[in-house]
Amino acid sequence: MATNSEPGLPPGVLTALLPRRNRPIPTALASFPGGIADVSTPDGDSLYNKFDLLCPRPECGSIILRAGVAKLLERPSIQMEPADRTPAALLPLPQPPASTEWWLVTPSPMEFENIGFSKPVAPLSSGDKQLKLLLCAQCDLGPLGWSEVDGTEFWLACSRVGYRADS
Ligand SMILES: [Zn+2]
Predict the structure, then answer these.
(1) Beta strand 162-163 with 40-43: parallel, antiparallel or unpaired?
(2) Are 133 and 117 in contact (CB under 8 A)?
(3) DSSP assignment of 41-70, as one string?
(4) pTM score, two decimals?
(5) Which of 5, 56, 112, 154 could covalently link to 105 via disulfide, CB atoms 3.0 to 4.6 Å apart?
(6) Do residues 159 and 101 lie in contact, with contact meaning Cβ atoms separated by under 8 Å?
(7) Distance, CA of 121 to CA of 128 (rounded, Å)
(8) How far is residue 86 CA from its own chain's centroid?
(9) Cβ-count burial of 15 within 10 angstroms (0-12 exposed, 13-18 middle, 19+ buried)?
(10) Closest to 53 (Cα-Cα) out of 66, 43, 41
């Protein structure tokens, strides 16, 4: 048997080959004692995301958006999926027209580090424009947010993204 006669690999090579060794760890919004105030930072008259935004799935943590890119806004909630179809890894949003907190990204998808889009879907709540739902580009978890088809505004639900608070 040659099993034990292989030359040893230099230290560090195996760990360097392990995938996602340095992947960011997403922290949920609900884990911050101060809530949205803990994950936002002022710039001029507006608040922006203080941390990188990540896929909220702990095993993924794909970087969606860098810190300081998205503006915090409170706007009416959007029903992005049927009420009984929210993925287990995501929190339900308030029922429209109740408001919720959003990260607004403009003017193009180029602002994102990684983002995926669904096919156009008819809105399930008020409004007549078709929407594209925002998904994790790595693992397809979503909807994390939405945009209008050919729109210049991209809305991420603050409660549906993870925060890179360890960086
Ligand atoms: Zn993901």
Answers:
(1) unpaired
(2) yes
(3) EEETTEEEESS-EE-S-TTT--EEE-TT-S
(4) 0.85
(5) 154
(6) yes
(7) 11
(8) 15
(9) exposed
(10) 66
| All domains of the chain in start order, with CATH | 26-163 (2.170.150.10)
Residue pLDDT tens, the chain, 167 long: 444 544 565 655 544 454 555 789 999 999 999 999 999 999 999 999 999 999 999 999 999 999 999 999 999 999 899 889 999 999 999 998 999 999 999 999 999 999 999 999 987 666 668 999 999 999 999 999 999 999 999 999 999 999 999 75
User: Which of 81, 97, 98, 99 lies closest to 89, judged by CA?
Assistant: 81
Q: What are the angstrom distances between the C-alpha of 7 and each of 1, 3, 56, 64?
A: 14, 10, 41, 41
Distance 149 CA to ligand 1 centre (A): 22
Q: How far is the CA of 157 from the centre of ligand 1 (A)?
A: 15
Single-letter code of the amino acid located at 112: F
Tell me the CA–centroid distance for residue 124 and ligand 1, in Å.
24
- Distance from the CA of 141 to the center of ligand 1, in angstroms? 6
CB 143 within 8 A of CB 118: yes
